[in-house]
Amino acid sequence: MRTPPRVLTVAGSDSGGGAGIQADLKTMLALGTHGMSVLTAVTAQNSLGVHGAWELPVEAVRAQFRSVVDDIGVQAVKTGMLSSPALVTTVAELLAGLRVPVVVDPVGVSKHGDALLAATALDAVRTKLLPTATVATPNLDEVAQLTGVRVRETADMPRAADAILALGPRWALIKGGHLPADPARAVPVEAVDLLTDGTDEHWLRAPRHGNRHTHGTGCTLASAIAAQLAKGDTVPRAVAAAKEYVTGALAAGFRLGAGIGPVDHGW
Ligand code: PLP
Fold this sequence. Notes:
By secondary structure, this protein is an alpha/beta fold. It has helices at about 20-30, 60-70, 85-95, 120-130, 140-145, 155-165, 215-230, 235-250, and strands spanning about 5-15, 35-45, 50-55, 75-80, 100-105, 135, 170-175, 190-195, 200-205.
């Protein structure tokens, strides 16, 4: 009997099923791994935005983590919405005792502009969480929040990666998907990301589809990287496979509710 690789997400719940824990578990299943979850916060959320958020007590997060790790064991971890300074610090401490790859998605604000991390938690993300990361996956807004570096074009991305690497992760994946459109075209032609450990540099390019139903993209990418790492990929191979998975899921993103629909894991 085959036991699949085990992957853990430490993240928030999206009641609409498009992002957070729900996107993470779907991604892990689609990539042939066993997904497990440590819930940090519950959001009341739909295609129009986040209508309420409640974080779990630190003891509940610690107990979930210990239950999973001490019995089942994990081969890779992904972190997402961590909400508060206390939760960021607790999760960083738990991860520091683990000897497996960790993908940190330093989630700050949702596409609708809802805060998923308190401004007071940014310092703990910089000094405690990012040093535990094998790969950190900030988008350009998160790069600016965490480092002050503003990326206006792809040429700025290496400077952003250096600033993130200075905070301690082994690899930085700078996601350029939010870069402004080429003024000559209605939609940008490519989504460009930069993966680097400071020496080895990989530029990843994928066609842009102009599909507005993109809810859950960041969660899905980070979870896909963690799933591939649990299966034994190197970081560059895991990120390339994850980008391919997200590109397919994005192309198939569908309408749900009156707002922004989710990426599709059933392709
Ligand atoms: N809700 C939760 C619980 C999340 O973790 C995230 C992103 O990490 C979001 C919402 C935001 O998703 P998006 O910005 O793709 O709409």
